[in-house]
């Protein structure tokens, strides 16, 4: 005897079984896009799994849509408190870098990479994006000039109106305001490069696009993403907040 909600075979088991593995990237994806934090997105994903585990989903026609909706609502709840944190955040705020290349050891990297590439492809429909070959060329020129401390070489790939954004979050030395102008950006980067010379600079994939990862003293020191338009760097974004790099 039962009231229709007794334990037994149900849609819940499907969601928590093989289907959950296929839905998880979508759940993580919506949380990451909204929150810009890998740790927060993982927490939301876990919360959604727990919610699904305790729900009767037999009448849910589209489990993925249900899961994504729960993830979005939970993310918005977090954003209400995150808004206050960001208003009091020291300096510019940038999302946590999400490595998406084939050699990354981040859990679920293949799924995250696939999703990031889809987002990048969608973005290209509205914003002109540099080709992979062009990004490789520009990044190679920039990296070589940076490693050599070559000011003129750094100015060359920078757009005259380029903007430089650094996110240190008060945890690492970083400019608290945006820096404008290619020459000014190059001057700042040369000075910073002399202060902390990296052990190496890797060309990696971040969010579906090629970027630079700076290593220093055996750890990731910064992740730098670039906006490239017509062969020139129009925006250079550097994350050096250690809290946002701990997962790499």
UniProtKB/TrEMBL annotation:
Lineage: superkingdom: Bacteria
InterPro entries in UniProt: ECF_Sigma-70_Domain, NTF2-like_dom_sf, RNA_pol_sigma70_r2, RNA_pol_sigma_r2
Pfam families in UniProt: Sigma70_r2
RNA polymerase sigma-70 region domain segment(s): 22-83
SUPFAM superfamilies found in the cross-reference section: NTF2-like, Sigma2 domain of RNA polymerase sigma factors
Signal sequence interval, chain numbering: none
PANTHER family (alphabetical): ECF RNA POLYMERASE SIGMA FACTOR SIGJ (PTHR30173:SF36), SIGMA 19 FACTOR (PTHR30173)
Name of the protein in question: Sigma factor
């Amino acid at each position: 005897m039962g009231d229709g909600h007794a334990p037994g075979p149900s849609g819940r088991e499907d969601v928590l079984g093989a289907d959950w593995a296929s839905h998880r990237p979508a759940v993580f994806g919506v949380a990451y896009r909204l929150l810009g934090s890998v740790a927060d997105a993982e927490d939301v994903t876990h919360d959604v799994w727990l919610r699904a585990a305790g729900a009767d989903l037999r009448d849910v026609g589209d489990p993925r849509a249900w899961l994504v909706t729960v993830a979005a609502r939970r993310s918005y709840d977090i954003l209400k408190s995150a808004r206050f944190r960001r208003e009091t955040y020291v300096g510019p705020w940038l999302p946590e870098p999400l490595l998406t290349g084939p050699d990354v050891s981040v859990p679920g990297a293949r799924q995250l990479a696939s999703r990031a590439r889809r987002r990048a492809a969608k973005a290209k429909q509205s914003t002109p994006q540099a080709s992979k070959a062009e990004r490789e060329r520009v990044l190679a020129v920039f990296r070589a000039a940076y490693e050599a401390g070559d000011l003129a070489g750094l100015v060359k790939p920078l757009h005259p109106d380029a903007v430089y954004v650094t996110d240190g979050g008060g945890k690492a030395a970083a400019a608290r305001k945006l820096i404008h102008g290619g020459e000014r950006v190059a001057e700042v980067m040369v000075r910073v490069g002399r202060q902390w010379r990296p052990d190496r600079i890797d060309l990696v994939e971040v969010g579906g696009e090629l970027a630079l990862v700076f290593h220093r003293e055996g750890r990731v020191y910064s992740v730098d993403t670039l906006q490239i338009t017509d062969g020139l760097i129009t925006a250079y974004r550097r994350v050096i907040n250690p809290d946002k790099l701990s997962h790499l």
